[in-house]
Amino acid sequence: MELKHVAGRSGRLSSFLREEMKMSAGLMNRLKWQELLFVNGVPRHTDFQVQPGDVITVPLDDPAPEYPAEDGEISILYEDDHILAVDKPAGMLIHPSRSRLTGTLANYVLGYFQKTGQKCAFHPITRLDRDTFGVVLLAKNAHIHAILNEFHSQGRLEKIYHGLVFGNFREDAGVIDAPIARMPLPSLLRYVNQEGKPSVTEFRVLERFGGYCKLALRPVTGRTHQLRVHCAHRGHPILGDPQYGNAESMAFSQQFGLESQLLCAKSLRFPHPITEEIVEIQSKLDAKL
Hints:
Layout: E1 2-6, E2 11-12, H1 13-20, H2 25-33, E3 38-39, E4 42-43, E5 49-50, E6 55-59, E7 76-79, E8 83-88, H3 105-115, E9 123-124, E10 133-139, H4 142-153, E11 158-166, E12 173-177, E13 180-182, E14 190-192, E15 200-208, E16 212-219, H5 226-233, H6 247-255, E17 263-271, E18 278-282
Parallel strand pairs: 10-17
Antiparallel strand pairs: 1-6, 2-5, 3-4, 3-6, 7-8, 8-10, 9-10, 11-16, 11-17, 12-15, 13-14, 15-16, 17-18
């Protein structure tokens, strides 16, 4: 992929990259040292004086990943030249690990890009636990990845999850404000601890049933396992959660054959990285709840 811009003013190349082309400082510096910033086809440094009518081009080819592309089914919710959003099923890892290099979302997306002739790489913006299902947003190159990560850090990506939890919240809506810390190694789990990082979740009860209820959850912060930890902290673990469930919720879940958490990344709302028009994407897997 290549970024291209025709200058309508004069100024330093770095100002065009930063303002008109919305390039992050980190990516700009990396491309500068690789001599991949071109004006009228000639490599230039960031202090080069650009004139009106000059053509700025930046190739954005990603290095080959260390895992294979695979032909696998992916459910596409949205796609354009810059981003891809898919519905990840429960039980699928987002990215390969040391112990597993195949069968992940990254393998299948890379296979899809190759099959459709797209010179794109796997750049996840949002991530889900293996057994959480729903919307995952991906950038198609490092430039778009940097823009969306900045939006994310600014709180401009609004994520809503739906989940079934054990028992019933007394309130119809509220906020869970409880810091989260990592348990001592070798555990990978988290727990509420006053020495942990600030963690805030907004919740709203959507439906009440006998012994459980359906919630809409918005993570104001983005800690690992945050929604699962916060619901368990309130005494209402997510149904089917084998790691944060209590004895009562696990017994209830086993009655219905639930072996993984019933938590869905239901919707994602964010400004488009190029146009900044609002994009809203909805998972189709919410029916599982």
